[in-house]
Structures are given as C-alpha cells and as structure tokens.
Q: What sequence folds into this?
C-alpha cells in the first residue's frame, strides 16, 4: 500500500508538470490561456504540499504506535 501512495503522488505531479508545459505552449500563442498555467502550477504546489504532510503524518503515526507498544509491554 505504501508503494502505491508514492506512485500515486508521483503520477499526480508528473501529470501536473505535463499540463503546465502544454498550457504554457498554448499560452505562448494566446495569452488568455495563462490562467490555466497558473491553475495547474497551484495544483502542483498543492500536490507537493500534500505529499510532504502525508510523510510527516505517517512518521508521527509510526512514532505513536511504537510508544503505545512500549507502554503495553509494561
């Protein structure tokens, strides 16, 4: 399951990067497409932020479960 989460987050980031590139190419010809570039850039930032928070939360949960296991032994 953990590998799937990494793959899912990586695929979202790659998708956003591809869309940023494609909309940038379209915006070169027509400036009205600039809003799409901004939109997908924000999506990419959000994906990165979510992934970092997911890693922090997972680490916190692992540390919490280790503490619980130590307390149950006593």
A:
């Amino acid at each position: 399951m953990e590998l799937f989460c990494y793959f899912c987050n990586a695929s979202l980031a790659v998708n956003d990067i591809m869309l940023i590139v494609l909309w940038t190419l379209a915006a070169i010809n027509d400036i009205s497409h600039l809003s799409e570039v901004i939109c997908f850039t924000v999506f990419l930032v959000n994906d990165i932020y979510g992934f970092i928070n997911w890693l922090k939360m997972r680490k916190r949960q692992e540390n919490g479960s280790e503490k619980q296991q130590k307390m149950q032994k006593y």
Notes: The two ends are 31 Å apart (CA to CA). Residues 2-73 form one domain. Helices lie at 2-29, 34-73. The mean pLDDT is 87.
